[in-house]
Specification:
By secondary structure, this protein is mainly β. The protein has one helix at 261-266, and strands spanning 5-8, 15-21, 26-31, 36-41, 45-51, 56-61, 67-71, 74-78, 85-89, 98-105, 111-117, 125-130, 136-143, 146-151, 157-162, 167-174, 179-188, 195-201, 207-212, 216-220, 226-231, 237-243, 249-254, 273-277.
Length: 290
Amino acid sequence: MGEVECVQQANAILGEGPSWSSAEGVLYWVDIKRPAIFRWDPLRGQTGLWPMPRPVGFASPAKSGRMVFGDSDGLGFLDLTTGEVTRLGDPENHLSQNRFNDGKVDRSGRVWAGTMNEKGPEATGSLYRLDPDGSIHRMASGFVCSNGLGWSPDNRTMYFTDSMVRTIWTYEFDPETGTLGDRRIFATLGSNDGFPDGMTVDSEGFVWSAVWDGWRVLRFAPDGTIDRTVRMPVQRPSSCMFGGPDLKTLYITSACVELGWNALKSGPLAGSLFALSTDVPGLPEVPFAG
């Protein structure tokens, strides 16, 4: 592998949710706390910035040319040309402490997105599936901070993270129906090892997880053991996604939120976007079919 490189000093408060568009050859990612969606072109740098009305957890390209996103008011579309926001629905409008956090599109074009509790440690978060017809389905519940999602190369396993319990789970996954089967623990981190955050899966079936408060990204083997550790120049790497023409560039977002002086002095690039050249490609992302 190459060295971790800072490709954009974005000063994001809480950079998150990277999503690679193969059709455009660009990376979309978000700043949750200074709500905005960014578009990063490896050849030209930042080519788009869309301020958002609410804290936005993820944004992914849709087949219609819009972006589908999740925020503190539910799920919606953003028109990249006009900046217009269209709301799809809010399944948790009765839970004022919750907002949508991480989200991904499965290979059938459905969005999977989880919610989190911003006010305390109560497990009020859930995992939802947004279908192309606009219907929203709660698929699992009982989470504090829903986070990283991904699918195995054979599409039979879905990974899902709850950062606050330091655990990545696997679910049996039916790609035809979009239903979940049995859940088991894939990997856990110790109390002094940081928190598993956003993640992605490569073409060999290995899981890459950004470790919040861990100064690193971990590559887990399919059996859950740690295969590789990538040291980061920032304390709070937040998520990762493969991109580039050959899908061999791992893009890594980061955050500077609530970091003290010593952490910022040790990691002055906090909030930047990073890139790492890898020897194994990722898996192609699919746009939301709605």
